[in-house]
Amino acid sequence: MRKNIPHTQLLSDGYRRVSVGGKKIWIKNIEDNTILSLFVNKNVNRNRAISMKKAGKLTRATVQKVYESNIKRYKTLTCYLCLKPIPFGKDHLEHKTPISRGGKNRRNNLAVACSKCNLKKHTRTEKEYRESIRKK
């Protein structure tokens, strides 16, 4: 069982026993259930904050350099994954190795992708994404 994902068990007296990250909580009504979800979300957000801090600071200058290098390379704003021109407002700043997988906010790990490709890629690395496309 993954940490911070609740495991519930309904007991005969109407109470629900919930295990979250090794801690057991007994809840009776919907308000308690809301408190439980807040508890879980707080832990998930804390873990995300820790990984974001490890990734380093993302500065405006870094973002500008990534966009400028994309335009210099392709002569127009182009998706680095599908190599198609990106329409205005459909661009995403993309981590080649996602922060959740240990990627950093460094220029060599950032690229510009169209929203379609970036959302398909999700938390995969660039290499994994390209392999999944080849298989289809």
Summarize the structure.
By secondary structure, this protein is of the alpha+beta class. The chain has helices spanning 30-55, 60-74, 115-121, 126-135; strands at 7-10, 16-20, 23-27, 91-95, 110-114.
Structure in words:
This protein folds into 2 domains: 7-55, no CATH class; 60-135, DNA Binding (I), subunit A (Orthogonal Bundle). Helix content is 43%, strand content 18%. The protein is built from 4 helices and 5 strands; from the N terminus they run E-E-E-H-H-E-E-H-H. A hairpin with a 5-residue loop joins strand 1 and strand 2 (16-20). Residues 1-5 have low confidence and may be disordered.
Topology:
Blueprint: E1 7-10, E2 16-20, E3 23-27, H1 30-55, H2 60-74, E4 91-95, E5 110-114, H3 115-121, H4 126-135
Keywords, separated by commas or semicolons:
5 strands; alpha+beta; three-stranded antiparallel sheet; 136 residues; disordered N terminus; DNA Binding (I), subunit A; single chain
How large is the count of helical segments?
4
H/E series: EEEHHEEHH
Distance between termini?
32 Å
Which regions have little confidence, pLDDT < 50, spanning 5+ residues?
A: 1-5
Strands, total number = 5
- CATH T-level topology of the largest domain: DNA Binding (I), subunit A
Averaging pLDDT over every residue, what do you get?
A: 79
Structural class: alpha+beta
Strand order of the largest sheet: 1-2-3
**Largest sheet descriptor:** 3 strands, antiparallel
CATH class label of the largest domain: Mainly Alpha
- Rg measurement, Å: 21 Å
The CATH architecture designation of the largest domain is Orthogonal Bundle
How would the global form be characterised?
A: globular
Q: Which percent range describes the beta-strand content? A: 15-25%
Question: What is the helix content?
Answer: 40-55%
Number of domains: 2
